[in-house]
Amino acid sequence: MDALRQLQSAGFSLPSPTYIFGALLFGLVGWVAWRHGKRSQRATPKWLGLALMLYPYAVPQTWAMYLVGAALCGWLALAWN
Fold first, then answer.
1. 4 burial class (0-12, 13-18, 19+ CB within 10 angstroms)?
2. Is residue 34 a contact partner of residue 46, using CB atoms and an 8 Å limit?
3. Confidence class for position 1, pLDDT limits 50, 70, 90
4. With contact defined as beta carbons under 8 Å apart, do 70 and 55 qualify?
5. Domain extents for the chain?
6. Where are the alpha helices (DSSP H) in 1-81?
7. Global pTM?
8. How large is the average pLDDT for residues 31-47?
9. Percent of the chain at pLDDT above 70?
10. Are 33 and 49 in contact (CB under 8 A)?
11. Would you tell me the crossing angle of helices 43-54 and 17-39 to the nearest 10 degrees?
């Protein structure tokens, strides 16, 4: 626990369970979209899937992650067919 306190004093913190759930959810949706885009040789679902898998690493706030994820999923739904 001492290492955890040292990391927290250095400005690092563990993500909330809500953040972890969202990152896993959008990562799985992204993986499915990437596989679909790769198999059907369609660029839009493939790149949207990659974006869904990687963007949680760049967005530190939970609300922003869900907002961006919902927007990317909406775009994916429009591009799927």
1. exposed
2. yes
3. low
4. no
5. 16-80
6. 2-9, 17-39, 43-54, 62-80
7. 0.81
8. 93
9. 99
10. yes
11. 160
